Input
Amino acid sequence: MLEDQTTAASAAPWPAAYPQGYAVVDVETTGLSRNDRIISAAVYRLDAQGEVEDHWYTLVNPERDPGPVWIHGLTNDVLEGAPLFKDIAEEFAARLDGRVLVAHNAVFDWSMIAREYARAESTAPVRQRLCTIALSKELGLPLPNHKLESLAAHFGVVQRNAHHALDDARVLAEAFRPSLRAAASGGVRLPLLECRPLTEWTDGAARIGRQGSAPSSSTPYGGGGSWRPSRKRPACPYPNPGRYEPGKPLKQGMRVAFSGDTSVDRQLLEDRAVEAGLHIATSLSRLTSLLVTNDPDSYTSKAVKAKQFGTPVIDEAAFGQLLRDVAPASDG
Output
């Protein structure tokens, strides 16, 4: 089937609206929070049809504890002589310039990259990103889960060194090529999302354009600050249209609850939802339209109640896609 799709893609005209080049990226980090740092980065540059042009890899000194060494294998001794991010920022940017950033759970990689550039008082030249999790959903790939190893196995790509940025980027590039060609042959619209660079970093807190405000003086993040202080949101002006139905768009007024860690800062994610006309629910009830969580099998109170109430549950990547086209509230 894959060979047939690839042959069809090469025979059919390539979609004119598709990007002209891609940068397949993987970063290893000291952790998953907003204050964690990149410790290694890899980029595979691909042409318009997914063919590899070149690749690049670097270690990065995070100027702090390297975090879960048992996962990425990068110790203090290994990273001590590595360049700082500001020292590799220009070359990293050259690898990204003019291309769509492709990553597995791209919102995480982009968030980490954007924060590093903000710390370096610069911005990454990335305007759009493409998440291979979202693309696999668009293609309807029969994957057991959203792990990179599952996507790789589906396309027969062999992982040699999982959680090493260069090998993860290679694996993803090899899996992205047939995915891209399958999308082209099927006329699938690529799930591209806008990348909004962070334009200022103050006392460890990033600001996005003019939306940012000073960090809160009391913070649980070891003095790093949060991106924006918590504040009371205005009431949603739209009535609740009921529960989200899979396969249909979100609708203004829907009550959305979040549970667990998110790759995008929670307040930023909630802001995007509010701007789209959704209601942010701080707790989960029978009136909740949707629960967004990256760990639906967790035992958080919201996840448990969602199962009890039959509340629809989707992950952050899928929610990001749905936010692109929220249906207007019904009249009356």
The longest strand covers residues 38-47.
